[in-house]
C-alpha cells in the first residue's frame, strides 16, 4: 500500500512542479521553462558584461598614460583578447538568446520553446565554457593573447600550451549557440498561434529567425577554424603554415566568413528590439513593416559576401578588393532603410520619453554614427589608413556598445516590468541612461581622432602625441564602467519589489506579450490565442 | 558684409579646415600623390556622411520636439508609402556610386607596382624589421631604440618615444620604390601613414606595394598587425633623402659592409678579453634577447624559457651556440646567425654563460662561432 501512496505522492509532486517552479538550485539546474532559462541567460550575460568590463578597465588604466605602468605587455594582450571574447560570446550573444527565450514564445503565443530539454542544455554548458576560458588566465603562460580574431600562426606555432583550453571553450560556446538557434527556428516555424501568418510576426521574432539561420550557417565554420588551429598546433598539420603547404591568410578567410555574419548576429536582434520599442512610444504603427523584413533578410544575405573587407591589407588581387568594397557599400542601403523607417515611425507620432525609448533614440543616433564609420571603412584605399587603428576600435564599439548593448538595455527596461510585475526605479534608470550616454561618447568618440592620427590597436603603450586623448578616453571609460553598476542596482531592486504594473505596462504597446498578466505567469498560452 | 558674416565664415569654413588639417585629429595628407588622393577620399566620404547625418537627425529631432505627446500631438495613421521607400533606397544607391568611382580609381593606381626604380624587401620578425636593398647588397635590421628606462617611466620620454629606431630605412625621393613584404614568423603589417602604405607581411608569402615620396624628411609609422608581446614596440622609420644624398648613403653603406667583413676576418686570430665580451654581450642581450628572455634572464613562465640556470646555457658550448645560431624552428626562438656579427654572437653567449649567477666562467671567442658556422655550411 505504502508504495502506492508514495507513487501518488510522487505524481502529485511532479504535477505540482509543473505549475509552480521547484525551490532552490535544482529549479534552475533542471528547468525546462523558457522564462527561467531566459532569466538564466540574462543574468549570465550581465555577469559576463561586468567581468569583460573589468578587463576593459584594466586596458584603459594601462592606457591612461604613455609608458608601462600596471601590466606587462603579454598580460595586456590577454586582457584585450579575453575582453573581446567575453563581450562577444559571453555578454551580447547570451543576452539576445535570453531575450529570445523570454519573449519569442510570448510574442507568438506559444506555451514554451519547442525543444525545452535542449534549451536547458544549451544554457548550462555555457558557464563551463567561460570557466575554462577564464581559468586559462591563471595558468602558467596565461590565457589567449592573440586577439579575439586568433590569427594563425600567432595562435598556432607561436601561442602557448593553454591554447587547447581556448579551443575547447569556443567549441562549447558554438554548440550552445547552435542549439539555441535550432530551438528558435523550430519554435517560430511550428508554434505560432493560429492566425499568426508570417507577415504578422512581430519584428523581434523576424529578426531573431533570420539571426538563427545565420548562427546555424556560420558557427560550424568557427568550429572548423578552431579545430584547424588545434590540429596545426598539437598534431602537426599545416592548414595555416606555408612550410607545410598551408596558408596563414586562408585562416583569415575562414575566420571572417564566420566573423562578418557574426557581427550581424549581434545587431539584427537589436534592430528587432528597436523596431518594437519605437512604435510603442510614438504611439504609431511601425513604418514600412514589409520593407523592414526585406531589409533584414537582404542584410543577412549580403553579410555572406563581404567578409574580406576585414582583409584588404593582406594583399588581395585588385578585382577581389573591388568586389568586397562594392558589396560592403551595398549593405549600407538596407541598413539606411531601417534608420529611415524608424525616423518615419516617429514622424507625426505622439512621442514620449520613457527609459526604453531614451535608449532606443540613443541607439538610432549612435548606431548610425557607427554605420557611417563603417561606410568609410568600406572604401578600400581609405581603409588602408584606418585598418587596425583605433578608428576601427571606435567603429565597432559604436555598433556594439551603443548599438547592441544599448538595444539590450532598452529591451531590458521595456520588458523588465513584464518579467517582474514591478516598475523599476525610473529616476535611477534615467540617471543610468544619461550617465551612460555622456560617458560612452567621452569614451569612444575621441578614439576616432587617435585612430586617424595613427594609433594602432592592441598596443599597451603609445607615442606621446596620443597622450591627451587617451587620458580623456580612459576617464570616459571609468565613468561608463561605473555607470553600469547603476543598471545592476535598478535590476536588482526591480526584481525585489516596486510599484505593481498592469498587464499592458506601456499604453502604446502592442503584441501578445502584453495580454498576459504582469509578472508573466510561469506558464502562458497553454491554449493558443486566436489572432484575428 | 558685416562682422557677423565674416565670423560665420570663420566658424563654418576656416575653423573646421584648421582643426581637421591638424594631425592630432585627422588623417594625414602625407607626402605622396597617393596619400593625398586617399586623404581627399577620406574627406569626401566624411562630408557626405555628415550631410546625410544632419538631414536624417534634423528630421528625427524635429519629430522628437514637435510631435511630443506632452505637447498634445495626436499620432498620424500612415505606416507605409511605396513611393517614399523606393526613393530612399534609390538615393543612397546613387550616392554610393558617386563614392565608388573615385575610390576605384585610387585603388587601381595604388595596386600598380610596375616600373619601379628601386626594390626593397621588407621582412618582419618578432619584433623588428629587416630591410634588403635588392641588387645592391645592402641589408640591415631596424630595431626600436627607445631605452627601457623611458618605457618603464624612470626617465623622461623623448619626443619620438616609441617611434624611433637604431637604423631607419633610407629611401630616395621622386623615385618609384617597390616593397616586397614577407615575414619570418607571425603576420606583421608595415605601415607608414604619410605614404598611405599599409601591407601585411605574411610568413611564407610575398606581398607587393609601392610608394613615391615627394618630400625629404623623416616619416614614422608602426607595425599594425598584432604580432605577439611586443607588437606595440615595433616602429617603422623612413628617412627620405634627395636622389644624390641617397646615392651617397648607399655607397657608404656598401663600404661599411666591406669594412665589417674585414674586421670580422681579423677577429678570427684574436683572443678578446672577457670584460670586453661581457660589456658588449650585455648590450646585445638587451637589444636582441631581453624582449623574450627578459633582462633578468628569467623568461616568462610558459611562454619564453628562463636562461638563468637553463641546462642549455650551462651545458655543452657547441649545443648552446647551435641554438643561438639556428634558433629552434617552429618556435619563437629565431636564428641569429644572420642577425648578429660573430663578435656579437661570441659576446652574447659569453654574457649568458656568466650573468645572473650562471657562473660557468666560459669565454667564447669569435673564432669558435665562425667554426660553428663553417661546420653547418659544410654539412649542407
Ligand atoms: C565597458 C566599456 C568598454 C570599454 C571601456 C572597452 C574598451 C576597449 C578597448 C580600449 C579595446 C581596444 C583594446 C586594444 O585594441 O588595445 C577594446 C577591444 C574590444 N572590445 Fe571593448 N570596451 C568596452 C565594451 C565592449 C563591449 C560591450 C563589447 C562587445 C559587445 C566590446 C567588444 C570589443 C572587442 C570585440 C574588442 C576587440 C578585441 C581584440 O582586439 O581582439 N567592448 N575594448
Ligand atoms: Cu565585417
Ligand atoms: Cu605587430
UniProtKB/TrEMBL annotation, chain A:
PROSITE patterns: COX1 (PS50855), COX1_CUB (PS00077). This is Cytochrome c oxidase subunit 1. GO terms for molecular function: cytochrome-c oxidase activity; heme binding; metal ion binding; oxidoreductase activity. It comes from Pseudoalteromonas arctica. GO terms for biological process: electron transport coupled proton transport; oxidative phosphorylation; respiratory electron transport chain. The keyword Membrane applies. Cytochrome c oxidase is the component of the respiratory chain that catalyzes the reduction of oxygen to water. Subunits 1-3 form the functional core of the enzyme complex. CO I is the catalytic subunit of the enzyme. Electrons originating in cytochrome c are transferred via the copper A center of subunit 2 and heme A of subunit 1 to the bimetallic center formed by heme A3 and copper B. Residues 1-21 are annotated as: Disordered. It is found in: Cell membrane; Membrane. It is a multi-pass membrane protein. Keywords: Cell membrane, Copper, Electron transport, Heme, Iron, Membrane, Metal-binding, Oxidoreductase, Respiratory chain, Translocase, Transmembrane, Transmembrane helix, Transport. The chain crosses the membrane at residues 40-61, 81-102, 123-143, 163-191, 203-230, 250-274, 286-310, 322-343, 355-379, 391-416, 428-449, 469-492. It is an enzyme of class 7 (translocase). Pathway: Energy metabolism; oxidative phosphorylation. Pfam families: COX1.
Automatic annotation (TrEMBL), chain B:
The keyword NAD does not apply. It comes from Pseudoalteromonas arctica. The lineage of its organism: Bacteria, Pseudomonadati, Pseudomonadota, Gammaproteobacteria, Alteromonadales. It is an enzyme of class 7 (translocase). One of its GO terms (cellular component) is plasma membrane. Binds a copper A center. It catalyses: 4 Fe(II)-[cytochrome c] + O2 + 8 H(+)(in) = 4 Fe(III)-[cytochrome c] + 2 H2O + 4 H(+)(out). GO terms for molecular function: copper ion binding; cytochrome-c oxidase activity; heme binding; oxidoreductase activity. This is Cytochrome c oxidase subunit 2.
Amino acid at each position: 500500500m505504502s508504495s502506492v501512496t508514495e507513487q501518488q505522492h510522487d505524481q502529485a509532486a511532479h504535477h505540482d512542479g509543473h505549475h509552480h517552479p521547484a525551490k532552490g538550485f535544482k529549479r534552475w539546474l533542471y528547468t525546462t521553462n523558457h522564462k527561467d532559462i531566459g532569466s538564466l541567460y540574462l543574468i549570465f550575460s550581465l555577469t559576463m558584461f561586468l567581468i569583460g568590463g573589468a578587463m576593459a578597465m584594466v586596458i584603459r588604466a594601462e592606457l591612461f598614460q604613455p609608458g608601462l605602468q600596471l601590466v606587462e605587455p603579454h598580460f595586456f594582450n590577454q586582457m584585450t583578447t579575453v575582453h573581446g571574447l567575453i563581450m562577444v560570446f559571453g555578454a551580447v550573444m547570451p543576452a539576445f538568446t535570453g531575450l529570445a527565450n523570454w519573449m519569442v514564445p510570448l510574442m507568438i503565443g506559444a506555451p514554451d520553446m519547442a525543444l525545452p530539454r535542449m534549451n536547458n542544455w544549451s544554457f548550462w554548458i555555457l558557464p563551463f565554457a567561460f570557466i575554462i576560458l577564464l581559468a586559462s588566465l591563471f595558468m602558467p603562460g596565461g590565457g589567449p593573447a592573440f586577439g579575439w580574431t586568433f590569427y594563425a600562426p600567432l595562435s598556432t606555432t607561436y601561442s602557448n600550451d593553454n591554447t587547447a583550453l581556448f579551443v575547447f571553450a569556443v567549441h562549447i560556446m558554438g554548440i550552445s549557440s547552435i542549439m539555441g538557434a535550432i530551438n528558435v527556428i523550430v519554435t517560430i516555424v511550428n508554434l505560432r498561434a493560429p492566425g499568426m501568418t508570417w507577415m504578422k510576426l512581430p519584428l523581434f521574432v523576424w529578426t531573431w529567425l533570420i539571426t538563427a539561420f545565420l548562427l546555424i550557417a556560420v558557427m560550424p565554420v568557427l568550429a572548423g577554424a578552431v579545430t584547424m588551429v588545434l590540429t596545426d598546433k598539437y598534431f602537426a598539420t599545416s592548414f595555416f603554415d606555408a612550410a607545410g603547404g598551408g596558408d596563414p591568410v586562408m585562416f583569415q578567410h575562414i575566420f571572417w566568413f564566420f566573423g562578418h555574419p557574426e557581427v550581424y548576429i549581434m545587431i539584427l536582434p537589436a534592430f528587432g528590439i528597436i523596431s518594437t520599442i519605437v512604435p510603442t512610444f510614438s504611439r504609431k504603427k511601425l513604418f514600412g513593416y514589409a520593407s523592414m523584413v526585406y531589409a533584414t533578410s537582404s542584410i543577412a544575405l549580403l553579410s555572406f559576401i563581404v567578409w574580406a573587407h576585414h582583409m584588404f591589407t593582406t594583399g588581395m588581387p585588385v578585382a577581389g578588393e573591388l568586389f568586397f568594397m562594392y558589396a560592403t557599400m551595398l549593405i549600407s542601403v538596407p541598413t539606411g532603410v531601417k534608420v529611415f523607417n524608424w525616423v518615419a515611425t516617429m514622424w507625426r507620432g505622439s512621442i514620449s520619453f520613457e527609459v526604453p525609448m531614451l535608449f532606443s533614440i540613443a541607439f538610432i543616433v549612435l548606431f548610425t554614427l557607427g554605420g557611417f564609420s563603417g561606410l568609410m571603412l568600406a572604401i578600400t584605399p581609405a581603409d588602408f589608413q584606418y585598418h587596425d587603428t583605433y578608428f576601427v576600435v571606435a567603429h565597432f564599439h559604436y555598433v556594439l556598445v551603443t548599438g547592441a548593448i544599448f538595444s539590450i538595455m532598452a529591451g531590458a527596461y521595456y520588458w523588465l516590468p513584464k518579467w517582474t510585475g514591478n516598475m523599476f526605479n525610473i529616476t535611477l534608470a534615467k540617471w543610468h541612461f544619461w550617465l551612460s550616454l555622456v560617458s560612452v561618447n567621452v569614451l569612444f568618440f575621441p578614439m576616432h581622432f587617435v585612430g586617424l592620427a595613427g594609433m594602432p590597436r592592441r598596443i599597451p603603450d603609445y607615442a606621446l602625441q596620443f597622450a591627451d586623448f587617451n587620458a580623456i578616453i580612459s576617464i570616459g571609460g571609468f565613468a561608463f564602467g561605473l555607470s553600469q553598476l547603476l543598471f545592476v542596482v535598478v535590476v536588482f531592486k526591480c526584481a525585489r519589489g516596486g510599484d505593481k504594473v498592469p498587464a499592458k505596462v506601456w499604453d502604446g504597446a502592442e503584441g501578445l506579450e502584453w495580454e498576459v498578466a504582469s509578472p508573466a505567469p510561469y506558464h502562458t498560452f497553454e491554449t493558443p490565442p486566436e489572432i484575428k | 558684409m558685416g562682422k557677423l558674416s565674416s565670423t560665420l565664415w570663420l566658424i563654418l569654413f576656416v575653423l573646421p579646415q584648421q582643426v581637421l588639417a591638424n594631425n592630432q585629429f585627422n588623417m594625414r595628407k602625407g607626402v605622396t600623390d597617393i596619400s593625398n588622393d586617399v586623404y581627399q577620399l577620406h574627406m569626401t566620404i566624411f562630408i557626405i556622411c555628415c550631410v546625410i547625418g544632419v538631414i536624417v537627425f534634423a528630421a528625427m529631432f524635429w519629430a522628437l520636439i514637435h510631435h511630443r505627446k506632452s505637447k498634445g500631438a495626436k499620432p498620424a495613421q500612415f505606416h507605409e508609402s511605396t513611393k517614399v521607400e523606393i526613393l530612399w533606397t534609390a538615393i543612397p544607391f546613387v550616392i554610393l556610386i558617386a563614392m565608388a568611382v573615385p575610390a576605384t580609381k585610387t585603388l587601381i593606381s595604388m595596386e600598380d607596382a610596375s616600373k619601379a626604380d628601386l626594390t626593397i624587401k621588407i621582412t618582419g620578425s618578432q619584433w623588428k624589421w629587416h630591410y634588403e636593398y635588392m641588387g645592391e647588397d645592402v641589408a640591415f635590421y631596424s630595431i626600436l631604440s627607445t631605452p627601457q628606462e623611458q618605457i618603464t617611466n624612470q626617465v623622461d620620454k623623448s619626443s619620438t618615444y616609441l617611434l624611433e629606431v637604431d637604423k631607419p630605412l633610407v629611401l630616395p625621393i621622386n623615385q618609384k620604390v617597390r616593397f616586397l613584404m614577407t615575414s619570418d614568423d607571425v603576420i606583421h603589417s608595415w605601415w607608414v601613414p604619410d605614404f598611405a602604405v599599409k601591407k601585411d607581411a605574411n610568413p611564407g608569402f610575398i606581398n607587393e606595394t609601392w610608394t613615391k615620396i615627394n618630400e625629404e624628411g623623416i616619416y614614422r609609422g608602426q607595425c599594425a598587425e598584432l604580432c605577439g608581446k611586443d607588437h606595440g614596440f615595433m616602429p617603422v622609420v623612413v628617412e627620405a633623402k634627395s636622389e644624390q644624398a641617397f646615392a651617397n648613403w648607399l655607397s657608404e653603406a656598401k663600404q661599411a659592409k666591406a669594412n665589417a667583413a674585414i674586421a670580422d676576418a681579423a677577429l678570427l686570430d684574436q683572443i678578446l678579453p672577457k670584460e670586453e665580451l661581457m660589456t658588449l654581450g650585455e648590450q646585445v642581450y638587451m637589444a636582441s634577447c631581453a624582449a623574450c628572455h627578459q633582462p633578468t634572464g628569467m623568461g616568462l613562465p610558459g611562454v619564453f624559457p628562463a636562461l638563468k640556470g637553463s641546462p642549455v646555457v650551462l651545458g655543452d658550448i657547441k649545443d648552446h651556440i647551435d641554438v643561438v645560431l639556428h634558433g629552434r624552428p617552429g618556435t619563437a626562438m629565431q636564428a641569429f646567425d644572420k642577425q648578429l656579427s660573430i663578435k656579437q654572437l661570441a659576446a652574447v653567449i659569453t654574457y649568458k654563460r656568466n650573468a645572473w649567477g650562471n657562473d660557468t666562467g666560459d669565454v667564447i671567442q669569435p673564432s669558435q662561432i665562425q667554426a660553428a658556422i663553417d661546420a653547418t655550411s659544410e654539412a649542407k
